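Supplementary Text 2. Reproducibility record for the structural model of the 184-residue chain.

All settings were left at their defaults, and a single model was retained for analysis rather than an ensemble. We include the record here because the model underlies the residue-level annotations in Supplementary Table 4.
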Amino acid sequence: MVCIIDIRNVSYFPSDAQNFFGSPIFGEYLSFLAYGPGSHGNLFISQALGLLFYLLTCKAFAKISRIIKIYPVIYDSKSNNKPLVLFSINFLIFISCYFAGLNIDYRLVFIAAATLSFLNIEAEQDFWPSICLTLAILIILYTSYNTYILQPIGDFFILFTISYFTVFFIKERIRIFNSIFSIK
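Retained model, structure tokens:
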């Protein structure tokens, strides 16, 4: 009954940047800064801006990873199959929600599950960025939705986290696909 009432009230939710999510949010922030509350950016330009930020952040992580070890060296064992599969599924669902935008409700579950799965991957040695990822997911969970002035902080942390995971996914794609197809 509560779900039906909530669905019925969706059209009454305020339509401003606090209800946007994902890639188009950065265009909404620029529109807010330029024109004030209640303004909205062009959806195409907002999406393009979000994609540009995403690609630039991915490129930065790829360059940094060539200089500093920011990704775990994964054990090549069956014990990593399940965490890699769970990471991949949750990450791919989250990133599709991210680029679809306006996908507010359960998206944080997928980024949290992807992060927890990632942190459970067995690496060959201690992995220092795990502390940064743990802090990032806590910031994301508590600031990325309807926290007004803190929401942009959460959205930037989401951008950095998914860019970090994207580069990892691309670097480890063969191992991930082998894990997916070897699970029984």
